[in-house]
Amino acid sequence: MKIVERHVIIFLIGIYVTAIGLLIYLPFIGKGRQFTVAIDIEKLCKVDVDENEWKYVVLHHSATDEGNARRFDRYHREKRKWPEGLAYHFVIGNGKGSSNGEIEVGDRWKKQIHGAHTANMNLNQIAIGICLVGNFEEDNKPTNNQLESLTSLVNYVSKKYKIPESNVIMHNQVAQNGTACPGKNFPYEQLIDKVTRLQPERTL
Fold it and tell me: Which residue, among 145, 141, 153, has the nearest Cα to 58 in the 3D structure?
């Protein structure tokens, strides 16, 4: 009987030690790892209307720490008085308002109509506007998930509409009144390099 009791005690101690070890170890699991964002870009970008002949991609930041397509849409309708609402075709979340790396599709994309994301209205007619939530003029940079989602999205639309590398531009490269958007910390060269590597069969 004593032998059985001893085994039970040893077993319980083992469970206790294991539980303590897991509690200590769990916070460190995954640290330093980059988690991928699984997105079906083709399904996400599918529309039920005639597609526009897109020629450019213009990259933006929201210049806010948080937000999502719904909030920006309301602001653009109520403050900017734009009847079509959200100026961009896509918004990519940073985890503060929508999921980290989540691609939100705006009505302008679903309707395949012009954006309102630059002061150049001629460019807006043929330019896909993509906004990343965040302020990259400050110390912040896009999250890994945001950059991964942006890479997938730019890769998809640039291949589909045959948009060359020279036409994937930042907002501050548009000839208009000066703007810092998408900020000095936006990793433009890194993005272009990633997209180029995904399209080895042609030069963007």
Answer: 153
Rounded Cα distance between 86 and 189, Å, is: 27
Alpha-carbon gap, residue 67 to 20, rounded angstroms: 39
CA dist list (Å): 41 to 73, 80, 130, 148, 163: 22, 30, 14, 12, 17
What angle in degrees, to the nearest 10, is found between the helix axes of 188-198 and 144-160? 50
Paired with 103 in beta bridges are 92
CA 43 to chain centre: 16
Residue-by-residue DSSP string for 22-77: HHHHGGGTTTTPPPP----HHHHH--SSPPP---EEEEEE-SSSS--HHHHHHHHH
CB of 101 closer than 8 Å to CB of 114: no
Predicted confidence (pLDDT) per residue in 84-93, tens digit: 999 999 999 9
Q: Hey, what long-range contacts does 25-29 have (CB within 8 A, 24 or more apart)? A: none
Token pair of 81 as six digits: 């008085």
Please state whether beta strands 100-105 and 90-94 pair in parallel, antiparallel, or not at all (unpaired).
antiparallel
Interval 104-124: pLDDT, tens? 999 999 999 999 999 999 999
